[in-house]
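Lay summary

Proteins are chains of building blocks that fold into shapes. Our project writes down both the chain and a compact code for its shape. Here are two examples, one after the other.
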Amino acid sequence: MILARPIPPSDWMTGVLASCQTVDFHLPARQEETACWRWITPAFLREPLLVPDLLAPFEARFGEGTDRRAIAARWSHLYGCITLPSLLTALALCDWQGDLRLAAPVLRLALAEDASPQRLLFLSAAASPRRSLAERWQELMVDHFAPLHQGLAEWSGVSPRVLWGNVAALVCWSLDELHRQHKRRVAAAVDAARAVMLASPTLYDGSANPVHGCLRPRPDGSQQRKVCCLSYLLPGETLCPSCPLPPSRP
């Protein structure tokens, strides 16, 4: 059952989710943000010739010789952190019907000086026929994250499986947090979202759901990635808590 709430879905993003309100739905950029962030059209990130220049400041954070695959994986994780909690709340609890394509003309992405993603902005609502959650989830995966992952993979050589693992982990965490914060009020909507987003092996059109099977349950109820996120290849980093690699891995 969809819960009636206005957009943006800030009423539902409480507790740790409060710090994840980094998507502006149909709101103008604030002046102070415009002054310190670089606003781009996210579609640039799927263009192989443009990605190196766009992400050069981010790559420079880690020093010469750092595995570019791990850099791309870290950037994709940060992108997921600023987009998925808010978008999933909007889709699952607020029945938001906006245009989720990476190349949507209304979409803008804010990058910090080091090119780390900061905020996603929808300039206006897109006119579209009413769509089910499964249809909107497919649009987010196929028309948004898949082109983004392709651009990052061509730039770095990282396996798309690593990047989809990032998405799966953040989807799982976001839905778990929504349920943890609001319990019975959102249980049915969160269960429905989990069934569409994580449990279903296929998308709305019958094609493969790219995040299905990226995680496996542990005996304690937590989730473990099936593919390492490569964080341990970054300077000063170790294996993350959900890593499938043995703890002895250097």
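And here is the second example, written the same way.
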Amino acid sequence: MTIGMLHTVYFWLTPGLSEAEKENFVAGAKALAEAPTVAACYVSAPAATPERDVTDHSFDYSLHLMFKDVADHDAYQIDPVHLKFVEEQAAKFAVVKVYDSSAL
């Protein structure tokens, strides 16, 4: 499948969450791969790369979803798998930043 769109989300979680709550967040994010229009799903944490002027390691987790096209992304936004993630995890979000891009 050709990837036409990338949906990248950075999460800063609410301070003071327990390790179990963080693990639950990661499990919930990984479950987003089950949405039928998601072509690929990666959940990550800041890498242990050296600090540079251009790096930002301040986030707690990032989510990288790949879709065939914008229509598949739009279907994902209203898919029960995504809606369940938001419902179960939103209380853990302090800040969320979304970067959508089209593959070249």
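What can we say about the second shape? The mean pLDDT is 97.
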